C-alpha cells in the first residue's frame, strides 16, 4: 500500500516553495493518493497525479496552480482514480480527447476565436474588419477548412507566395495574422509543435525579406506652384466632399482622420481639433491647431440632422474615401493640363496633399523640420527624446498653419 500523505490546507499549499537548488520538486498535498504540487526552479507551479497502471508508472498534469485550485485538483484526481479502478488509463483517455479536439478545429474556427480574443485590442471597428478581411481573402481559400493540427510551412507558403512580391505590405501583415491564429490554436491545445507561420528561423529561409519584395510608391502630390490654383478651384465647388477635402488640405491631416471627425472633437473657441488615439495611425492623441480659414469653414457648415460627423454622407454615416478621391479627380479633369505630380506625372490624390504641405514647409519657409513632422502626426526623434518631450509645439504650429493657409490663398478666396 502506498503511504498516504498528510492532507494539506489551501493556505499551506499556497506557501509551499522551491528549496532553491536542484530541479523540479513535487510536494504531496494529500486528500488523494499520488496528488502533488510540482514547483520548478523559477517558481512555476502545476498539479501532478502519479499512478500505476499494469505495472507501469505514469504522471499526468492536472493544470497550473493557482488557476486550478487545490479543491479542483483533488476533484480531478479523484475522477482519474475512479477511471483507474474501472480499468482505464486517464492519461491515455486525455490524449485521445485532445486528438479529437484538434481534429475538429479548423483554421476558420481558430480565426473566429482569435478575433474574439483580440477584440479588445483592435484600435477600432475598421481595424478589426481589416484584420479579419485579410484572412478571409487570402488565407481562407487555402487554409480555411484544414484542421489547424495539419497546417505546415508548405501550406503557409502556398498562401503567401502569390502575393509576397506584388503586395508585400499586405502579405507581411497576413503572415503575422496567420501566426497569431495558429498561436491561439497551440495555446488552447488544438495543435502542437512550432508555429509554421513564424518568420525568423523559418519562413525567412525561403522567402525574400519584405523590404526587398516591393518598393513603396509615393502618392501623387500637387506641385507647390499648382497648389494655390488648385485650392481656388476647390473653393468653387459645393458639397460635403469638397468641404472635407478643403479641411484636409488646411489641416494637413489624413483623409481618414477628416472623414471620421466629429463635432465633439472640435473646440472652435480655442481653435483646436483633438483627434483621439484610437483614430490615429500611431495610436496617440493628436491636437491640430485650426487656422482662421479652417475655423471659418466649420462655422459656415450646416449640420445635417443629428449626425455627429463634420462631413457626413448624404445617406448617413461618414463620407467614404472614394468621395474625396472623386472630388479631386473632377477638379483635375476640369483643368486642361490637369494637376499632375511633378515626378510621376500622375494626377494628384488626397493623400498627396500632405506631401505638398511638407514640401512647402521645407522649401518655402524657415520652420523646423520637426515642427512640420509634428503637424503631420509623424513620430519625431528617438524613443528617449519622445519620452522627455512634454510639448507638442501647439502655438508655434498654429503660426505655421496660418502661413500655410495664406500660401494656399485661403483668405483671398473667402473674400
TrEMBL record:
Protein name, as recorded: DUF4102 domain-containing protein
PANTHER family per record: PROPHAGE INTEGRASE, PROPHAGE INTEGRASE INTS-RELATED
Domain Core-binding (CB), chain residue ranges per copy: 105-186
Pfam families for the chain: Arm-DNA-bind_3, Phage_int_M, Phage_integrase
Keywords: DNA integration, DNA recombination, DNA-binding
Annotated GO biological process: DNA integration; DNA recombination
Residues covered by the Tyr recombinase domain: 217-401
Assigned protein family: Belongs to the 'phage' integrase family.
InterPro entries referenced in this protein's UniProt entry, alphabetically: CB, DNA_brk_join_enz, Integrase-like_cat_sf, Integrase_catalytic, Integrase_DNA-bd_sf, Integrase_DNA_bind_dom, Integrase_recombinase_N, Phage_int_M
Amino acid at each position: 500500500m502506498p503511504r498516504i500523505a498528510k492532507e494539506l490546507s489551501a493556505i499551506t499549499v499556497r506557501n509551499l516553495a522551491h528549496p532553491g537548488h536542484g530541479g523540479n520538486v513535487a510536494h504531496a498535498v494529500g486528500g488523494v493518493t499520488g496528488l502533488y504540487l510540482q514547483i520548478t526552479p523559477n517558481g512555476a507551479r502545476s498539479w501532478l497525479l502519479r499512478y500505476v497502471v499494469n505495472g507501469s508508472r505514469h504522471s499526468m498534469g492536472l493544470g497550473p496552480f493557482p488557476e486550478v485550485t487545490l479543491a479542483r485538483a483533488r476533484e480531478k484526481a479523484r475522477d482519474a482514480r475512479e477511471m483507474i479502478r474501472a480499468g482505464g488509463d486517464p492519461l491515455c483517455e486525455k490524449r485521445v480527447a485532445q486528438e479529437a479536439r484538434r481534429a475538429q478545429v479548423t483554421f476558420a474556427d481558430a480565426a473566429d476565436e482569435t478575433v474574439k480574443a483580440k477584440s479588445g485590442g483592435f484600435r477600432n471597428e475598421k481595424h478589426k474588419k481589416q484584420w479579419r478581411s485579410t484572412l478571409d481573402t487570402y488565407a481562407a481559400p487555402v487554409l480555411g477548412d484544414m484542421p489547424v493540427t495539419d497546417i505546415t510551412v508548405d501550406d503557409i507558403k502556398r498562401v503567401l507566395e502569390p502575393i509576397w512580391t506584388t503586395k508585400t505590405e499586405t502579405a507581411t501583415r497576413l503572415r503575422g495574422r496567420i501566426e497569431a491564429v495558429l498561436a491561439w490554436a497551440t495555446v488552447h491545445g488544438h495543435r502542437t509543435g512550432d508555429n509554421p507561420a513564424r518568420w525568423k528561423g523559418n519562413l525567412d529561409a525561403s522567402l525574400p525579406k519584405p523590404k526587398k519584395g516591393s518598393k513603396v510608391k509615393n502618392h501623387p502630390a500637387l506641385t507647390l506652384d499648382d497648389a494655390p490654383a488648385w485650392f481656388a478651384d476647390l473653393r468653387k465647388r459645393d458639397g460635403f466632399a469638397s468641404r472635407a477635402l478643403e479641411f484636409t488640405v488646411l489641416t494637413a491631416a489624413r483623409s481618414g482622420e477628416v472623414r471620421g471627425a466629429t463635432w465633439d472633437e472640435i473646440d472652435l473657441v480655442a481653435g483646436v481639433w483633438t483627434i483621439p488615439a484610437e483614430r490615429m495611425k500611431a495610436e496617440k492623441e493628436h491636437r491640430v491647431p485650426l487656422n482662421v480659414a479652417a475655423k471659418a469653414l466649420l462655422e459656415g457648415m450646416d449640420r445635417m440632422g443629428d449626425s455627429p460627423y463634420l462631413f457626413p454622407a448624404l445617406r448617413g454615416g461618414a463620407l467614404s474615401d472614394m468621395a474625396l478621391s472623386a472630388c479631386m479627380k473632377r477638379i483635375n479633369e476640369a483643368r486642361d493640363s490637369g494637376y499632375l505630380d511633378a515626378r510621376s506625372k500622375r494626377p494628384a490624390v488626397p493623400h498627396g496633399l500632405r506631401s505638398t504641405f511638407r514640401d512647402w514647409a521645407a522649401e518655402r519657409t524657415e520652420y523646423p523640420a520637426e515642427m512640420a513632422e509634428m503637424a503631420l502626426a509623424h513620430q519625431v526623434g528617438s524613443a528617449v527624446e519622445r519620452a522627455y518631450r512634454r510639448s507638442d509645439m501647439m502655438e508655434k504650429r498654429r503660426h505655421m498653419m496660418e502661413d500655410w493657409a495664406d500660401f494656399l490663398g485661403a483668405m483671398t478666396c473667402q473674400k
